[in-house]
Amino acid sequence: MLAKTILALGALASFAEQTIALPSDYHVSIVRDEVDVTAKIEVNTGKDHSTDGAPAEVLEALATRGEGNGNDTSIGSMPFSKRGLAYNDAGMANALGGACKKCGWGWNWDQTPNGLDGRYSFVPMLWGDRPVHTNRWAANAQKAIQNGAKAFLSFNEPDNGGQSNMSPQAAAEAHIKYMNPYAGKVKIGAPSITNSGASNQGVNWLNAFFKACNGRCRVDFCPVHWYSDAQWADTLITHINSASKACSGKPVWLTEFAPTGGDVNGFLRKMLPKLDALGSLDAYSYFMVAQGKLMSGSRSLSSSGQLYATL
Fold it and tell me: Mean pLDDT over all residues of the chain?
């Protein structure tokens, strides 16, 4: 029988269609729609495959195809480049962004841009499920859509007791209540997870979240965070791949990442090209646009900031 799978990938190509030959007699037709920036993948084969995610051969082929604007993998399936600005001070973000031709979006752990330049696509976040966040969400979410927002971020590190600190079950119910209403209007992210390997954290928490959702949560991509020593840089790619699998092959956003020790500039030189080339990754933002990190002053870039802006 025919199996049909919906995945978000690729870049804008106005109703363009492309056919790809794949192993094991798979035939994939990709149709990109510039309106909602999604791609429909129809997998035609004589075998019966689950529609929860594309067959492994399909995912592997797509991951190695260099999806993006032609061969430019620095642009994922969103209508902005992958590289983003994680900030608290919009003035700093605008200063770094002015030197960063690849920077196309920004977020600030909050619901309003607070001065971020309009050339960047602002992505609001519903940080947690407490009233201080939820009471203002509906109005801010609607305003963001009116201002052209393309994506929303769900809860911040619910798997971390020091952040939004939510069980998978509580997060699933809150996601359904507060995020599902915007399905079809913007791309919706799952709750952002850490890279902890503990049984109730990281990708394990994400798997439990989807189990609690039981198909009811509207999710278009899965955001992840990564912190470790620079010598373990390659585990960043492993973490992204694990999250992609948990997310049924949907795109991953790396919304926070930084080495906790070692050569930061060497880390950026090594990893930024890999992140740009990674087909399963739609967006990333280094932690963060702030003094002592990507900035050396209120409007001046650090050496790491200069690398992030120009590499």
Answer: 83
